Q: What sequence folds into this?
């Protein structure tokens, strides 16, 4: 990546080696990073990435759309009902 690159991860935290990312950011190998996902979530408050001014870590807000949160709420309700009735808990919502 160019030194002016900005790395953005909104998919899965495990896709990036966070220690290597810290090294690349602190050495100036890349300019900045924005992380919506980390491993683990949330990062411990003493994690080195949180000390960098060129790294922004968001609280996994990529899924914070009305549509996605609505589907997540329905799945949660269906799992609660299944648990209360002794039924198998669904792992995905059948639309």
A:
């Amino acid at each position: 990546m160019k030194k002016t690159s900005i790395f953005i991860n909104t998919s899965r935290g495990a896709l990036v080696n966070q220690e290597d990312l810290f090294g690349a950011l602190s050495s100036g190998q890349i300019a900045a990073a924005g992380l919506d996902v980390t491993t683990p979530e949330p990062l411990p408050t003493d994690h080195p990435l949180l000390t960098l001014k060129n790294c922004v870590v968001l609280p996994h807000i990529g899924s914070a759309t009305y549509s996605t949160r609505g589907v997540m709420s329905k799945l949660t309700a269906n799992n609660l009902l299944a648990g209360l009735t002794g039924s198998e808990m669904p792992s995905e919502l059948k639309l």
The chain has a mean pLDDT of 91.
